[in-house]
Amino acid sequence: MLSRILCACVVAALFCAPPVRAGVPAPASPRLSADVPAQSLAAALTLFGETTGLSVSWPPGTADLHSPGARSGLTPQEALEALLRGTSLTFEFLNERSVKIMYPETVSETHRTPEPPPEPDVQPMPQVTVTTTRWDRQVTQLPVDMVVWNYDAMVASGVKGIADIGALTPGVAFDFFSSVGSGVYTNIIIRGVTDRHGSATGTFFDDVPLPAARSNTFGRALPPYFDLSSIEILRGPQGTLLGADTQGGAVRFVPNQPSLTTFSGLAHAEWATTAQGNPGYEVGAAEGGPLIPDVLGYRFSAWYRSEGGYVDRVDPFTGATVDGNSNRVTSESLRGVLAYAYTPSLTITPSISYVSTKAHDSPSFFTYLSNPSAGDLNNGSLRAQPFSDTYYVGSIRLIGDVRVGELDSRTSYYHRDGDLVVDDTESVKWGGWGNPLGLAYPVSYSNAVTTFTALRQSVLSQEVRLTSHASEDRRSSWTAGISYYRTRDTERYRVVAEKIPANHNLPLDSDNSTGTVQTQFAGYGQVSHRISKHFTLSAGLRVEHEKYDSSQVAPVIRASASETLLAPKFSLDYETGNRNLFYFLAAKGYAPAGVDAALPTCFEFLSPYPTDTVWGYELGAKFGLFGGRAHLDTAIFEARWNNGPGVTTNCLVTHIPGTAVSKGFELKAMAPLGRLEVRLEVSYIDAHYTETGSANGRVIVNDGDALGTPPLVTSPWNVVTSLEQTLALGGGMNVTIRAEDAFHSHNPGPFYTGIPQPPTFVPNFYAPNLGSDPSTNLLNLRATIHVRAANPLAALCRCATDNEESLDVSMFLNNALDSQPTLLKRNKGVDVSTLFYATTFRPRTLGLAGTWRF
């Protein structure tokens, strides 16, 4: 099947705008072309700005204010007055294109003449808005270090998912175990906070959690990028508002929502060819709008992507190609949403999403059979290692105004089926440690050992959140909520050996299964108070009760535990008169206790592991420079991690015991130089263990060892630079040329895998040849022609009569220098073999993409 497309998309009415104040006369902008529905003030102001083309700014401390909305046909001044009604805020036009929202006492009584407009070639930097009701404010006003990739930014950088986000966002890493199947044992690391065998980063789709299986991130379910409003990276512990498994941070996938007033849509197609690999393509469409104006709206999207392979599976004994470019992948998604305004103050939004990913074979190659610098990438596994992962998410969300604030209730169900095949020939241990079935390098296909893994996962969740409109003096705001999650995981492993050596009396077929039910019930709250004109103090707390019950089949073993966890948060921010922001933040994140499933590959039982916690501290500043035409954000941070006691199994040591620290800084600068936009992002991370730990009387980690298991360790220096220039061609056309470069440095260690152990020690994970990735540099180039025209659909809907349609046609060259470093170099079980697996960047890829928005 080659495609899944066409049908449905809608531009949401989730954002809006401000009211006006004496000073500069209101501009003669077009009247409001579409309704701005009742919603949070920040969302209303944002939509107002998008609709009128005005630049709108507003003060901190307004995140929880509510706007009654504004009807189409109003002038900008009338619309602002309607949007700000009941908030006590006022507004002032600074010039013909800019308006400032403010508290009454901050209005300038002397500012009665417009400021000179910006230079013709220098426009204010665009503001990015966080779209969740928890953080309905512009990024430049938030006292937190975060990165927001909106849809336009993702398209400009060629982002197709979290792997690209990790490559292009300093301080964020996405990697996987190259030695295990099709690269599905993934890990997302933020600020270096990582466990050896798990993840400390939470992922959410439309505010629905997508948890990892057990502590291991088995093929973590990740939404596609298509039809997303944004991807938000929240750096630092997020336990207070987002709950468990967010010690390092969280990634929020925010999809577009239905509109009750405006029709819109997009269609996207792309084709690309990879050097010494197969071509790939993708198609997608989204569309939507009001079915019954102001009452019922919809949004529907469909997307399909085929990625060509570039690694050959070969016969390791003859070198003959068995399956050329075998690591091909197909992905598809469908999503449907309805929005029903039951009353003017209550909206019901049911939605369902379906995502499927199928990998034909592993993207890893054998180092002894390959030459990456020559583009010769070969995998010598004795059998193909396919992976199939399918999940769907259904939810019903109710948002309504009640007497004290905005009520937000979401009920969701998530179900996932994952099936993985792994060639475990050189790693399976039959009959005890140090007595493997075969050699590190198999000598015939009769040595083959295959592990079949099946994951079944379901999550039922309910969250109810109440957010204040504001206190009586408009200086305080609060959020309170409760949440309940019930997660059911089942992991089944079956190991099949082609042949058992004569000196072993072992089965050719062995299996085991581990089932876990985990429940989480929490109450949380956060209060913010503007203690003076410039200072705002916030405090929050989450109290969560965790419980799990787990059992394995052969032999029957049960494990259970329960505990109550606290996750506090404190922040103090100071905003200057010119809207520069300084802040201090302290927050706690945690991961509850659980079990790792029994693995028959080394005859181990299920392994309980303890709770771990992280305290994060952050001091940051955000500057708007040159009248908002440039921005500079910077933060220094320290995360202190306590992983509790370690867990030793037959195969490995999971959850290295003791404490660790991750500290460093992040900087982001954006500035226009005429029509050239320059962006620079830098992060430095030093993550290491802070005490010496032991197991079975032997040292297993030293104070100062780098945090993580090589090669899954953090790169200390990360630098991303981009240059983008837009040139007008006339006739409603312009061209944008973009160059983006990402640099990641080498982590020199030392690593705990370099600690010598006697051969009798179990486990013996001494592997001094395992190191971190080398320094890497990735350069991507892109040129886009943008054409605007009147939207012929505007006449069909009695809304947004000045809507425009646009067509973007792009040519891109990813990995322009064809860099092919050896990455994620790893063997099976660390000490078991000298056969190394590795990956590399996708070779140079040339492509053509087109996006039509209407």
Structural features, described:
The structure is a single chain. This protein is mainly beta and 854 residues long. The strands form 11 sheets. It has a 22-stranded antiparallel barrel. The protein has a 5-stranded mixed beta sheet with strand order 6-11-12-9-10. It has a 3-stranded mixed beta sheet with strand order 2-5-4, covered by helices on one side. Strand 26 (509-530) and strand 27 form a beta hairpin. Helix 1 runs antiparallel to helix 2.
Descriptive key words:
single chain; 854 residues; mainly beta; 22-stranded antiparallel β-barrel; five-stranded mixed beta sheet; 5 helices; 48 strands; disordered N terminus
Class computed from helices, strands and strand pairing: mainly beta
Query: Would you identify the regions where 5 or more consecutive residues have pLDDT less than 50?
Result: 1-29, 105-141, 429-438, 760-764, 792-803
The overall pLDDT average reads 80
Count, helices? 5
Largest sheet: 22 strands, antiparallel, barrel
Strand residue percentage? over 45%
Categorize the overall geometry: globular
Instruction: Specify the helix fraction band.
Output: under 10%
**First-to-last CA distance:** 27 Å
Rg computed from alpha carbons, rounded to a whole number of angstroms = 27 Å
Extended strand count: 48
